[in-house]
Prior knowledge:
Blueprint: H1 2-49, H2 55-69, E1 72-78, E2 81-91, E3 102-112
Antiparallel strand pairs: 1-2, 2-3
Amino acid sequence: xxxxxxxxxxxxxxxxxxxxxxxxxxxxxxxxxxxxxxxxxxxxxxxxxxxxxxxxxxxxxxxxxxxxxxxxxxxxxxxxxxxxxxxxxxxxxxxxxxxxxxxxxxxxxxxxxxxx
Length: 116
């Protein structure tokens, strides 16, 4: 009778503690994706001001943010839109006792390189 109750308590604790860690990781992934898009659009705008294509500069700047922040992700340009996706994993504390070793989180952001 006690074993199921203890398992239920671990499950609830796991959902609270590990779920909170996953929410934090998701928030960080979203923030980093948005930061990468802002940096990329800023770099691209500087190139466009002098009449050059800013796509390459935008991609380099966005990818540099991903590298600096240490998150897995990608940056791509399509039709003047800069898309950035990020992903990360967080180790679990309580859910590891139930066989769930890590949780994943991801983020995405999109920005437009305006024509000048």
